[in-house]
User: What shape does this take?
Amino acid sequence: MIVRISGEDQYRLADGDGRLGDLDDAVLAALEAADEQSFTSSLSELLDYVRSHGERLGDDELAASDVILPPADLTLAEAERGFTGEGLIPDA
Assistant: This one.
């Protein structure tokens, strides 16, 4: 799976990574609860996981992203306007 962090880089992660799905669920739960502190920390944890467990694609490597994650500075208010449904990562 190729994951892009908006405004940053692309990373290759294993398909079906259960931890990735758990982190995505935490972001969605914080969003649904309108808990800004939890949203910010869970989004940060998700992005940190992608950065640390993914293999960063080189600048010369062109690949379509399977998932595009929002930037780290996304606010809860912005997320409430832009995200709905299953979470950030479909079927993770």
